[in-house]
Structure formats: structure tokens, C-alpha cells
Amino acid sequence: MINPAQLLPDITAIAQGAGEIIMRHFAAPIPTTLKSSRIDIVTAADTEAEAYIVKELLARFPDHHIVGEEGGNQGAPAATAAYHWFVDPVDGTVNFASKLPHFCTSIALATRDREPLLGVIYDPTRRELFTAIHGAGAWLNGQRLRVTQTAALIDAVITSGFPYDKHTNPDNNLKEWAAFLVRIRGERRLGSAALDLCYVAAGRLDGYWEKDLKTWDVMAGMLIAREAGGMVTDYQGDPNPQRFDRGRYVASNGKLHAEMLEVFQSL
Ligand code: 2AM
Ligand code: CA
Q1: pLDDT confidence of residue 191
Q2: Strands (DSSP E) along 20-178, which ranges?
Q3: Does domain 153-265 have CATH number 3.40.190.80?
Q4: What is the pTM of this model?
Q5: Ligand 1 atom nearest to CA at 163
Q6: Largest CA distance in the chain
Q7: Mean pLDDT for each consecutive 10-residue tract of the chain (267 residues)?
Q8: Residues at CB less than 6 angstroms from ligand 1
Q9: Index of the ligand 1 atom closest to the CA of residue 160
Q10: CATH 3.40.190.80 boundaries in the chain
């Protein structure tokens, strides 16, 4: 059995190394390349940071499987590897390419059936390191994290995001956005799913929801949110949407969760 706590110093160093690569690119002009659509973009920072992270992970864990946003599946085959890594080199690429300093690197270790064991998220512009180990709490630069105590949606500040096919797919989160807008104190749209989950963990936000998320966007952040006392499910309340790549995630401080799920049911 692997001991995720023993891996934490190395994985932290790798996430911070990726942060250095990203910040070097952030200081210069940032050309973008299109992926699935005109707004789904990738930059040299994404590619270079992911190559660095994958090289470091493969050197240490050659018998593990690695799922990376830009590089696809690497390492040992998914079906046989006991452990899977989920890597998003730059979460918040649209912010990054716009020179808006709100993005991060997300690295998670999970079992083959996608139970997260370790989550490391590094925000290189604020030098904020969010970490969690399954069963051992969530931390920000060495300080223990706790979710908010907000108990009613009307007192809540909640964030969300919109999918890359929003121009053509009518199921583009606008109905959900409107439904929450009139029920809460404030709605925010920050642009990094991984940091949204960390901010729920840190008590900076009361809740978060989004559709079309991939495992690399959420695997680390959902562990960090849960280890800070939060709850993460799909829109119906299923506690493990990452197992089936369902893409729809709701995170909250726990107290607000039922009220948040009711909003989806009302649509
Ligand atoms: P990215 O910056 O790594 O692409 C924005 O709403 C947030 O959701 C970002 O974290 C973005 O990740 C993610 N996101 C939105 N649509 C996505 C998609 N179709 N696939 C993967 N991630 C997506
Ligand atoms: Ca990304």
C-alpha cells in the first residue's frame, strides 16, 4: 500500500516546479492554439508544464497510470495500474492566456477506482499551496482549512463556470446560473474549477457547481474540499461522480448541500 503522506513533499515540489514554468511564460506574450473549439485553448505553458510533471511522475512511479489534460494517458495501462494520477498543468487557461492572474496546477493521486488519496493544487501568482491527504485534512501553506458555517442559501456566496460548447449547446448552465442568482447573496465566476474547490475548502466561498468538468479538473480539489469538511456530489447527490466521468459537480460546506441540490431539481 502506498502512503500518500510520504509523497507529499515530492509532489509539492513538482507542482511548484510547474508553477515556475508557468510564471516564466506568464511574463511574456502568450500565443494560444485552439483545441475542441475557438474558446478551448492551449498554450506552450500547458504543454511544457504537463511534460515536466509527467516526466517527474513517470520517473518515480513507472507502474502507475497518468491521466493528463494535454498528453492523454501515459505510464502503465489504466486497467492494470493500482494507482492513477490526474494532472491539469494549467487549470484556468483562459485566465492565463488573458494575463488574468487566477490559475493553478492540479495534481491528484487516486486508486484505480478513482478514490482520491492525495491532492496538491498550487496557485503560482499568490504562492498558495493547497494540499489534502485522504483522512488527514486539508491545508493551505501549512494552515488547516475549514469550510464556512453558512446555513442558508440566501446568505451564501457561490461560484460556477460555463462549458466550452456554450455557444452551440443550449444546456450551457445559464438556467442554473439564473436560478441561483435570485436565491443567494452573490454569484461569482472565477475561471478555475480547481481553485473554486479550494476556495470552498478555505471558507472563501460557500459553494460551487459546474458541468462538463473532467477528472483532471476536480480530482485534487474535491479531496481538498471534502477534507476541509465540505461535500462534493453530482447534481443528484451521487457522492462519486468522478468514477463515471459524469462531469457535473456540486461542492458546498455541507450545510447548504440539500438546498443547492433542490435548485437543480426545480429546473
Ligand atoms: P481548464 O482551464 O483547464 O480548461 C472554467 O469554467 C473551468 O472549467 C476551468 O477549470 C476549465 O479548465 C474547466 N472546463 C470548462 N469546460 C471544460 C471542458 N470542456 N473540459 C475540461 N475542462 C473544462
Ligand atoms: Ca487545463
Answers
A1: 98
A2: 32-34, 41-43, 65-68, 72-75, 83-91, 104-111, 116-123, 128-133, 138-140, 143-144, 157-160
A3: yes
A4: 0.97
A5: 16
A6: 50
A7: 96 98 95 86 93 97 96 93 98 96 98 98 98 98 98 98 94 98 98 99 99 97 98 97 94 98 97
A8: 69, 88, 91-93, 161-164, 191-193, 210, 212-214, 217
A9: 6
A10: 153-265
> What would the grid cell of residue 64 be?
502507475
The three-class DSSP label of residue 84 is: strand
pLDDT for 71: 87
- What pLDDT does 39 receive? 83
Q: Which 3 state secondary structure label does DSSP give 92? A: coil
Specify the CATH architecture of the domain 4-144: 2-Layer Sandwich (3.30)
Q: Which of 33, 43, 28 is nearest to 89 (CA)?
A: 43
Using the mean position of ligand 1's atoms as its centre, give its distance from the Cα of residue 44 in Å.
17
- Rounded to the nearest whole angstrom, what is the distance from the C-alpha of residue 137 to the centroid of ligand 2? 25
Residue-level pLDDT at 40: 85
